[in-house]
Amino acid sequence: MAQGALAASFAVSGTNFQVASSKLESKGLASYVQVDRSVDGKGHPVALLGIGDAALADICQAARVKTPLGTVVFKLTAGGPAGQVTATDLVIDGEDLVGDARFGTAQIGRDASTLDAVRGVKGEAGAFGLQAGDISVAGVKSHAWSATGGNFRLKGLKLNVKLDGPACF
Prior knowledge:
Strand content: over 45%
Number of domains: 1
Number of helices: 0
Helix content: under 10%
Number of strands: 9
Mean pLDDT: 92
Oligomer: single chain
Radius of gyration: 16 Å
């Protein structure tokens, strides 16, 4: 569990979700492996990704949710022509991440309990961790179980729910 990070303080739903952005830039990245638990006790292995001060060109977040009417897609988009999406102390519990990345001052294999690139993001002593001073990722695609942040600024926010609607990717 993250020490001081919000992502560790609640049970995740039984549904993961997609996150996509054409470009993510941040000052600071810290990451380690942990297990998220849903209310039913099921474990979900994730890479906890702590991202310091993030700026995203755009963002899409979508979850397929089963309802009595059928499967609906809960979708949130922001950014693009409306302006950048920003977040501070963003924590994503992701099961994968795809994109073209650049890491500055990377430290891979650092003890997770000593991570200091993102405030409040530390793992268990002896656990594998990595961190970087700054990051840039183009073509971000991820499946996540949770995402929390100290402050989100979502310019041009759009939220919709549609039966069998389109997801992010």
